[in-house]
């Protein structure tokens, strides 16, 4: 190993010997630092370091192999994101060689890279003189790297950096809707990629940096460390010799992609247990196989990366970004198949909305409708309805491994449930009773009394039974707020209530001891194009919740991209940058948030332009959601 390639455990790499800086550290104001979202605490200095064109990853000395490829995958994405905007063709002068970051060597000390919810997400990025261990979030680090048009190199400016960070809420979500408009798989993947740039919703990825796990082999007079653990990196700039830090390979920051898969308009997903359900899709091409769903949740990233001769590299058109000497053997079929969303630290939350919003179910199975004239909600009196729900959740549980499933439950017209029973009575007893509607009404009342339910109780029965089915498949349930407002005391105590409509519901939910996710439609609905980014930034999920224990029951929030007016042509610019404004609200400590959104317009503008440079079609900050630029001009003036 060369002298410029320092090995670290989980370690870190690299960098250079024989150089000691005098540190100048400044406290950073929220108004001036171009990092989004704003970390918990930040300080910096005035030095410049350069990334080597041959910046490389090694895993020499690891206790475990990178069996899933997640380490190489994350390293490849790091290089691609940093180098994608410009061709990096500069050279470092001989006098600057000591300032070059050569690469990192990662020591994998645990084989566990499973993505979980509800764990420590804190991280630390430090460029310090103490020699203490320092760790960093990949996205935060990438925002510190800038292309220098004079040297044609990637620079890390204003070192030393010292960043300590952790999210305010564990659940930070983005909803997409594939029923109102079909979203092709590449579009969903682009949305997933863009989520990783904002620490949004997360899910929500987890970063666990535990100082007591770190093993420091020697003290340093100067160190820069950027740590990788399941997608995050540590690197070391050392004026001394080998430094070792040992960490468990279990660090992810969790984001949540809430996939509202089906609704009244279409049922695009294959359900092997009930193969006629996707007859409710708009068309045959506008469908997802269960393998497609697995692709989003836990399968290939081959659209961008493949494993060639043991190295994780971008596909052929991107090889230059890695400056790799590996010559691909296209006949070897040596590709890496693994998660797409989960490799990016994102859990996928599946939603199957019942009993309302389900008209499309009956296209393939008409008996799920109460009658041809009354096609929703689903028929509560038909045992086949619950057999289908059980089959759907059984199939989903094989692919969607997130601990939660969303069962909807919103906007159910109980008057239609009344008609449901009435229509069934007409169906069952048409030959003998159709001559006298009054007899039908009497028979209906008798039937309800025998079942011990009125129409509203039929709604309650349906939701609670669907919850029981979900629990039997290992899921905890999320339901829209109507279920709480109608029969909140009957909901399973593990239920998470999703507040979208009424102002005071979140406070009522946590007062009742249940958990809550906040998505107020007048604040965080992205399809409301007249809701501007300052409103997304300013909305506070803990409004009117003052008790600390109750505040902990608000697990987070979610911005919702309902699909009535979006498809693959405009979804990105409708989501971004307004969703990023909410992401800072969910990530940054309350006391660090700007009291006036005007304070952050400079940083958000910078971040919007960074998204554009990374290929994300984020709209200008000025004007309505997804509005086009008003006139010629700089990205930084829109």
Automatic annotation (TrEMBL):
Keywords: Glycoprotein, Glycosidase, Hydrolase. Residues 169-200, 249-589 form the Glycoside hydrolase family 20 catalytic domain. GO terms for molecular function: beta-N-acetylhexosaminidase activity. It is an enzyme of class 3 (hydrolase). It catalyses: Hydrolysis of terminal non-reducing N-acetyl-D-hexosamine residues in N-acetyl-beta-D-hexosaminides. Pfam families: Glyco_hydro_20, Glycohydro_20b2. Its EC number is 3.2.1.52. GO terms for cellular component: membrane. InterPro entries: Beta_hexosaminidase_sua/sub, GH, Glyco_hydro_20_cat, Hex-like_dom2, HEX_eukaryotic_N. The active site is at 411 (proton donor). One of its GO terms (biological process) is carbohydrate metabolic process. It comes from the Eukaryota. Residues 35-131 form the Beta-hexosaminidase eukaryotic type N-terminal domain. Belongs to the glycosyl hydrolase 20 family. PANTHER family: BETA-HEXOSAMINIDASE, BETA-HEXOSAMINIDASE A. This is Beta-hexosaminidase. It comes from Rhododendron griersonianum.
């Amino acid at each position: 190993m060369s002298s410029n390639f320092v090995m670290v455990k989980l370690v870190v790499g690299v960098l250079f010997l024989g150089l000691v800086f005098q540190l100048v550290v400044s406290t950073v104001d929220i108004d001036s630092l171009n990092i989004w979202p704003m970390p918990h605490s930040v300080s910096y200095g005035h030095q410049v370091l350069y990334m080597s064109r041959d910046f490389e990853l090694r895993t020499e000395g690891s206790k475990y192999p990178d069996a899933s490829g997640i380490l190489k995958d994350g390293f490849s994405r790091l290089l691609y994101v940093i180098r994608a905007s410009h061709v990096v063709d500069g050279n470092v002068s001989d006098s600057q060689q000591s300032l070059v970051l050569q690469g990192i060597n990662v020591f994998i000390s645990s084989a566990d890279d499973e993505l979980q919810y509800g764990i420590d997400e804190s991280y630390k990025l430090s460029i310090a003189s103490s020699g203490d261990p320092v760790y960093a979030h990949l996205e935060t680090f990438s925002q510190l790297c800038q292309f220098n048009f004079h040297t044609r190199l990637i620079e890390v400016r204003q070192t030393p950096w010292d960043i300590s960070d952790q999210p305010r809420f564990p659940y930070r979500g983005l909803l997409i809707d594939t029923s109102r408009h079909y979203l092709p798989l590449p579009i969903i993947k682009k949305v997933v990629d863009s989520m990783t740039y904002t620490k949004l919703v997360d899910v929500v990825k987890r970063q666990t940096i535990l100082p007591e796990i770190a093993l420091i082999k020697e003290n340093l007079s100067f160190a820069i460390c950027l740590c990788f653990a399941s997608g995050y990196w540590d690197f070391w700039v050392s004026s001394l010799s080998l430094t070792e830090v040992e960490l468990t390979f279990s660090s992810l920051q969790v984001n949540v992609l809430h996939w509202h898969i089906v609704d009244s308009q279409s049922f695009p997903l294959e359900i092997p247990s009930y193969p006629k359900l996707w007859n409710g899709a708009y068309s045959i091409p506008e469908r997802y196989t269960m393998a497609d769903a697995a692709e989003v949740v836990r399968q290939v990233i081959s659209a961008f990366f493949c494993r060639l001769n043991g190295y994780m590299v971008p596909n052929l058109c991107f090889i230059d970004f890695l400056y790799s000497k590996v010559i691909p053997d296209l006949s070897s079929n040596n590709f890496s198949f693994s998660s797409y969303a989960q490799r990016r630290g994102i859990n996928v939350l599946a939603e199957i909305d019942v009993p309302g919003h389900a008209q499309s179910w009956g296209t393939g199975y008409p008996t799920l409708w109460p009658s041809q004239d009354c096609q929703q909600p689903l028929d509560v009196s038909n045992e086949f309805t619950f057999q289908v729900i059980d089959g759907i959740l059984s199939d989903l549980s094989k692919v969607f491994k997130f601990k939660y499933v969303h069962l909807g439950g919103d906007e159910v017209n109980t008057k239609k449930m009344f008609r449901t029973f009435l229509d069934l009575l007409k169906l069952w007893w048409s030959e003998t009773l159709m001559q006298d509607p009054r007899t039908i009404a009497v028979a209906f009342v008798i039937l309800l009394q025998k079942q011990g339910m009125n129409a509203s109780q039929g709604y309650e029965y349906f939701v609670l039974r669907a919850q029981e089915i979900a629990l039997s498949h290992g899921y905890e349930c999320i339901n829209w707020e109507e279920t709480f407002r109608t029969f909140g005391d009957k909901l399973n105590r593990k239920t998470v209530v999703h507040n979208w409509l009424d102002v005071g519901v979140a406070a009522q939910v946590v007062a009742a001891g249940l958990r809550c996710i906040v998505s107020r439609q007048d604040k965080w609905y992205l399809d409301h194009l007249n809701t501007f980014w300052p409103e997304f930034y300013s909305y506070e999920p803990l409004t009117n919740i003052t008790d600390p224990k109750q505040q902990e029951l608000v697990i987070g929030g979610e911005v919702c991209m309902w699909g009535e007016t979006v498809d693959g042509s405009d979804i990105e610019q409708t989501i971004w940058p307004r969703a990023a404004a909410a992401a800072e609200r969910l990530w940054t400590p309350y006391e660090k948030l700007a009291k006036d959104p005007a304070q952050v317009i400079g940083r958000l503008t910078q971040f919007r332009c960074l998204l554009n440079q990374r290929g994300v079609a984020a709209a200008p900050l000025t004007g309505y959601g997804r509005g086009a630029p008003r006139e010629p001009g700089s990205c930084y003036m829109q």
